[in-house]
Design a protein that fits this description.
The complex is a heterotrimer of chains A (222), B (542) and C (324). Chain B is mostly helical. Chain B has 15 helices and no strands. Classes of the chains: A mainly alpha (222), B mainly alpha (542), C alpha+beta (324).
Chain lengths: 222, 542, 324
């Protein structure tokens, strides 16, 4: 690793030994992240398929179970997450123009908003635990549709849990990036780690944009 | 940076560093390929050992050698190990890892550290599954059908499933690396239609890996959650639908069949071309047929479910699509055959395997038509017919191609020459043993012997004995290469840079290659397999 | 040595001949192509083997006509296979009207059969020759698959839903019955025999055992014992719908949707009554999940079928006359 005999215009660019020039390396990283996101789409796609199958089989149970979710907290979290996407976009911009303070500041703001999201999610999970809505032997649900409501909550926990796991990974990445940004590693020439983490962060955000109505809002009018 | 490093003569990627650490921490794709080679070989012989036990039990009709619980674990472990830990990684992770950067003229894959990570992930996944084997095994069949796997089986389903889940990420990392490398790291002048067909087939394979593997990963996770918490997703008593599992599972696992065979087709394209000294006939058709197989492969999963209770009309659509996916395979076979026409055919060992591949894959592919035909599938579904069919594709096709590829590139990978006489002999033994093992199973299947049977009615014995006899020959056929390959590492003659007189960038560099693959970045000026041109496509020096 | 080497299964149903005809067509086509490829491989391999004095190989790159020919011909042949296979499959799925009904429950690791006349069998099924038989099947536990090779029929038997299978035996004899879907430890032992009998012998077999009450009569007893009759009394103002003349008809649900009162709907209405409630009734019915097994459900189904439209319900549900 590391630049050996950097060609002109690549000073400060940590060029991998197997790349010909910075453009190739940057394009590869970005393209790699897109390919990875394609995998992610299919990963969540499996869960969305299961959701679609059971929601069409048990529409009433799903609507009823959905009413046990906290729409207020869900809405706040949606706003928090969209806000974090904004700060992430600002961080990418700051990286592209090479402003170090901006990078660190926006990355930390994104990290903070992401943490708020997870904290609220934790509060919601705690409520569900308290209300015995966690699938398994301890699951309690009034009414004849209990088994089907359990499937709803199983999917709820799988989907939001997987999403939360992606958030946790994202927060880890943000932390590392912020530290490296503070050391001045990212310049107008070399900033693809911030850019591709941005792609990842927006993807996780978009997943939530789908999860929120499918899980929280279906019971409102039914 | 080019031309700055002057490689020391005699320095190559193997002797550039010594010690366990230099291997376990390497990011060199060639070394990682060898790590994979060692690992998948281990799994191949482990899976093979279970196959031997299965065939031993089936010599006599009653279940007299082992208990049925044990037998069920044998075939499950055989399937899990062979599918997830041998067939899927074999050509991509061993030959692909070694060759993709060399064939596209790059110094490494796009993400060398991810590549090493993929091997570690593979080993960790394998360790989980091996733990399950050692601690008592698993008896669900490699297909993990619910609700048996999620509610009823008392064996180590979770450890095994977790192993498969983790291994999936290893193939995702490999596939991602290949796609990015093929897109972004091709040498100057190496346009898409100058790429070797091996690259095309691995590209199509990587697409399937990227898009299919995550679905099976989440499915396995749901099975695990069902087992641990009884959430009801696949349990009909709690409102779940066991068929949903089959849909999700086959959405990945049917395309996974193409993950296993497409790389083999790529290898065979290379072999046929090299040993008939001719360009592959209909290059573009062969290339696009790989992509067509990858695309159509995602639309045919329901043909595993013709008698599962899915709707009649769904069955008809899946049948129609399954016939369509047969066409690109037929195109490949015809084009390979046409490549031989007016060629200059050499009978070296890799070519023998290529011939074996075309013959056995033809039988395997054509018997696939029986399974796509709805009314016939109703009869032969879940019988030995299907066992024979997929072994013709997987072993007759894929393993033949893998062996052919291993012999072809062995001199390049190791710098050593294997004994040609022994190699030809074992290729012959494998071909004979394979047919004796699996051809009788077609007949058994049409007679109605169901698969996964520990004991069977007496009228099926003769065919089963033939099959078991064949398996013992096949086993010998696989052991011989193991011995002479190892022998060649110490005693084999040093290999030339291009022992077969092949085109292709990987042959333009010494055997074994230097750590950076090429002394100078090659520039490609002609199409692949340019055997007819008086000026063989050497890398024009910049 | 190969005197007892079987190559081809017995044909013992109307479907067997049709599937085999298709099979032989496939064998002929695939045999031709296998032979073609093998011949070409061998001829080319010998004819064009390397000779040292060889000139360079010719630059034969591609021939579009050839590519189209060898894509289109296989496609046409494949479509012929598809159409033929789909036709036979469709006939294999749709049972002819008037078939003899038999209820089947699969469980680890046995097959249980219930005839309409009340006879029960385990792992053995007696049927008369020349009469179509329709099986309605469900599993108590995992997925099984009922397979009779001599009839060329197979159908998965699922927990939580009904599947059906029909055949018309053509030759008397005893034929293997297998479970084809791997179902656990004793999967290989989950089999038995289908005995196809001449009508006379079948009558003798029927007479051989003292038949109990008919399946519908058993179902009626279950219906009464479980208290179903309290609400489904058939009187005006009853809390549940009248089940007389219901089977197979359309009902309008509370949601306004229509549903057909078939086996699947009736089963769901017993196990998950709130799912699809008929318009005009309150969702009061408790679930009977866990209180009744698959066999009991089938008995109740037989009873509801026996009082369906055009059925002389009360008679067939009455105890069968004693055997002569």
């Amino acid at each position: 690793m590391g630049a050996h005999g950097a060609p002109p215009g690549t000073q400060g660019f940590p060029l991998g030994h197997h790349f010909d020039d910075p453009a190739q390396q940057t394009e590869s990283s970005t393209f790699g992240m897109w390919v990875f996101l394609a995998t992610e789409v299919l990963f969540f796609g499996g869960l969305f398929t299961a959701y679609a199958v059971y929601r069409s089989a048990y529409p009433h149970a799903f609507a009823e179970a959905s009413r046990h979710l906290d729409v207020t907290l869900g809405t706040i979290n949606t706003a928090v997450l969209i806000g974090s996407s904004l700060t992430m976009a600002m961080a990418v911009h700051a990286a592209q123009v090479g402003r170090r303070a901006g990078q660190v500041g926006y990355l930390l703001m994104t990290l903070a908003l992401g943490s708020v999201f997870l904290a609220i999610k934790g509060v919601e999970y705690a409520h569900k635990h308290h209300e015995h809505l966690i699938p398994g032997p301890g699951f309690r649900f009034e009414g004849p549709e209990a088994p089907h409501a359990q499937i709803f909550f199983a999917l709820y926990f799988m989907m939001t849990g997987m999403h939360a796991l992606h958030m946790v990974i994202g927060l880890g990445l943000l932390g590392v990036l912020a530290a490296r940004a503070r050391m001045g590693r990212f310049t107008a020439v070399y900033n693809s780690p911030i850019e591709i983490t941005g792609l990842y962060w927006h993807f996780v955000d978009i997943v939530w944009i789908f999860l929120f109505p499918l899980l929280y809002l279906i019971g409102l009018h039914a | 940076m080019n031309g700055e490093r002057v490689p020391t003569p005699g320095r190559h990627y193997i002797n550039i560093a010594y010690g366990v650490k230099s291997w376990l921490l390497t990011t060199d794709h060639k070394r990682i390929a060898l790590l994979y080679l060692a690992t998948v070989t281990l799994f191949f012989f482990l899976g093979g050992a279970f196959a031997v036990l299965i065939r031993l039990e089936l010599i006599t009709p009653p279940g007299d050698m082992v208990q049925s619980e044990t037998y069920n674990k044998f075939f499950t472990m055989h399937g899990v190990i062979m599918v997830f830990f041998f067939l899927i990684p074999s050509i991509p992770a061993v030959l692909g890892n070694f060759l993709v950067p060399m064939m596209v003229g790059a110094r490494d894959l796009a993400f060398p550290r991810l590549n090493l990570l993929s091997w570690y992930v593979f080993v960790i996944g394998g360790a989980f599954t091996l733990t399950a084997v050692v601690s008592g095994g698993v008896d669900t069949g490699w297909t993990f059908y619910t609700p048996y796997s999620s509610t009823y089986s008392n064996t180590h389903v979770i450890a095994t499933a977790l192993g498969v889940f983790i291994t999936g990420f290893s193939s995702i990392l490999t596939g991602l690396n290949f796609i990015v490398t093929i897109h972004k790291m091709r040498a100057p002048g190496l346009t898409w239609f100058r790429l070797p067909l091996f690259i095309w087939s691995l590209y199509a394979t990587s697409l399937i890996i990227i898009l299919g593997t995550p679905v099976v990963a989440i499915t396995i996770l749901l099975v695990g959650a069902e087992r641990l918490f009884h959430i009801g997703i696949f349990d009909p008593r709690l409102g779940g639908d066991p068929l949903l599992f089959q849909h999700l599972f086959w959405f990945y696992s049917h395309p996974a069949v193409y993950i296993m065979i497409l790389p083999g087709m790529g290898v065979v394209s290379e072999l046929i071309s090299c040993f008939s000294r001719k360009r592959v006939f209909g290059y573009r058709f062969v290339a696009f047929s790989s992509v067509a197989i990858a695309a159509l492969g995602f639309l045919v999963w329901g043909h595993h479910m013709f008698v599962s209770g899915q709707s009649v009309y769904a069955g008809m659509i899946f049948s129609l699509l399954s016939f369509l996916v047969a066409i690109p395979s037929a195109i490949k076979v015809f084009n390979w055959t046409a490549t031989l026409y007016r060629g200059s055919i050499h009978y070296d060992t890799p070519m023998l395997y290529a011939f074996g591949f075309i013959g056995l894959f033809t039988i395997g592919g054509l018997t696939g038509l029986f399974l796509a035909t709805l009314a016939v599938d109703v009869h032969v579904h879940d019988t030995y017919f299907i066992v024979a069919h997929f072994h013709y594709i997987m072993v007759g096709g894929m393993v033949m191609a893998y062996m052919g590829g291993l012999h072809f590139w062995w001199p390049k990978m190791t710098g050593c020459t294997y004994p040609e006489g022994w190699a030809k002999l074992s290729a012959l033994i494998i071909f004979v043993g394979f047919n004796l093992t699996f051809f009788p199973q077609f007949i058994l299947g049409y007679l109605g012997m169901p698969r996964r049977y520990h004991a069977y009615p007496e009228e099926f014995q003769v065919l089963n004995v033939m099959s078991s006899a064949g398996a013992s020959i096949l086993g010998v056929g696989y052991l011989i290469p193991m011995v002479y390959f190892l022998w060649s590492l110490k005693y084999g003659k040093a290999a030339a840079a291009n022992p077969w007189g092949a085109t292709g960038l990987e042959w333009q560099t010494p055997s074994p290659p230097p750590q950076e693959n090429f002394e100078e970045t090659p520039v490609v000026v002609s199409e692949a397999y340019n055997y007819s041109s008086p000026a063989l496509s050497g890398p024009a020096r910049t | 040595m190969f005197g007892d080497l079987p190559l081809f299964p017995e044909q013992a149903s109307t479907m067997a001949g049709r599937v085999d005809a298709l099979y032989f067509y496939l064998l002929a086509v695939t045999g031709f192509f296998t032979l073609l490829i093998f011949t070409l491989l061998i001829v080319f391999a010998v004819r064009y083997r390397h000779r040292p004095e060889d000139p360079r190989t010719p630059a034969l790159y591609a021939n579009y006509t050839l590519e189209i020919v060898w894509s289109v011909i296989p496609l046409v042949i494949a479509m012929s296979m598809f159409v033929w296979g789909a036709k036979v499959y469709f006939d294999n799925v749709v049972a002819p009207p008037g078939a003899t009904e038999i209820f089947v429950v699969g469980r680890q690791w046995m097959w249980k059969f219930q005839h309409l006349d009340g006879r029960r069998e385990i792992n053995e099924l007696h049927v008369p020759v020349g009469r179509p038989v329709k099986l309605t099947m469900a599993s108590e536990d995992v997925i099984h698959s009922l397979y009779v090779p001599a009839f060329r029929v197979k159908m998965d038997v699922l927990p939580g839903r009904y599947s059906t299978l029909w055949f018309e035996p053509t030759r008397p004899g005893s034929y293997h019955l297998f479970c084809a879907e791997y179902c656990g430890t004793k999967h290989a032992a989950m089999g038995g025999w289908v005995h196809v009998m001449e009508p006379v012998r079948y009558e003798q077999w029927l007479g051989g055992e003292a038949p109990g009450e008919s399946l519908a009569a058993t179902g009626r007893r279950v219906f009464e014992r479980m208290g179903c009759v309290t609400c489904h009394s058939g009187t005006s103002g009853a809390r549940g719908p009248d089940l007389k003349g219901l089977y197979g008809t359309q009902v309008i649900l509370r949601t306004g949707e229509a549903a057909t009162a078939d086996d699947t709907y009736l089963r769901e209405s017993i196990l998950n009554p709130q799912a699809r409630v008929v318009r005009g009734y309150e969702p009061l019915m408790p679930t009977y999940r866990g209180q009744i097994n698959e066999e009991g459900l089938m008995q109740i189904l037989a009873y509801i079928r026996s009082i369906g439209p055009g059925q002389d319900g009360e008679q067939s549900a009455a105890p069968a006359p004693p055997a002569p």
